[in-house]
């Protein structure tokens, strides 16, 4: 309307002027009246339209600001959970072990050193989370997903005493930097839950497929969940994993029973 109204007004005015008003209004007077009429039309009709457009723009900016704030809070929660919450859980496991050793009179300097190391890791995770929140995902430094998964697996396995195995054939080129970060966080959460919820003694991770169709599977031999794992009280990590997968357009399946738990993350269906 803002674009068309002045054009239509000038067109109608020129037709009426030349067809019906030439006897009453001279050519020069008509030329002077044309910009005056355009100005009056702008004041009467276009200014309210511009005001409506400006209000719409302001509302859009406010909604965008609220959305950005919510995304920042969600990202902060994920960063803190991936680093602090999981490390604090590992720290609690080590403290329980230290307490048992103390009762048996077997407290060693190595136990204390491991706890101190975990505390420093929590501090590092907090600093890294703060740094990551200041850097867009697209600017993150590329890394090897296979080596990262292997490193996370070995670290957690050593801390919580779990036998692990890795069968990884997925190429790094199949993922963007953001996909690598999100998938690694999902895998880490699945490994932590193996120890935290299922009390398994063995876990295996496999990755297969290509850029368009791939599957990552985490399998353990623990007790499994008695109910829907996403409805378990306090399963915030599983909810985050589900949100991560849905946000990336991946499929997530969690099957659990007496024989163990299977966590499967897929893209584009099951690879051939």
UniProtKB/TrEMBL annotation:
Broad class of enzyme this protein falls into: transferase
This enzyme's EC code(s): 2.7.13.3
Domain of life of the organism encoding this protein: Bacteria
Gene Ontology cellular-component annotations: membrane
Start and end residues of each Histidine kinase/HSP90-like ATPase domain: 178-271
Gene3D superfamilies: 1.20.5.1930, Histidine kinase-like ATPase, C-terminal domain
Catalyzed reactions: ATP + protein L-histidine = ADP + protein N-phospho-L-histidine
One of the record's GO molecular function terms: protein dimerization activity
Keywords: ATP-binding, Kinase, Membrane, Nucleotide-binding, Phosphoprotein, Transferase, Transmembrane, Transmembrane helix, Two-component regulatory system
InterPro entries, sorted: HATPase_C_sf, HATPase_dom, Sensor_HK_TwoCompSys, Sig_transdc_His_kin_sub3_dim/P
CDD domains found in the cross-reference section: HATPase_UhpB-NarQ-NarX-like
Transmembrane spans: 33-52
PANTHER family in the cross-refs: NITRATE/NITRITE SENSOR PROTEIN NARX-RELATED (PTHR24421), NITRATE_NITRITE SENSOR PROTEIN NARQ (PTHR24421:SF10)
Protein name from the UniProt record: histidine kinase
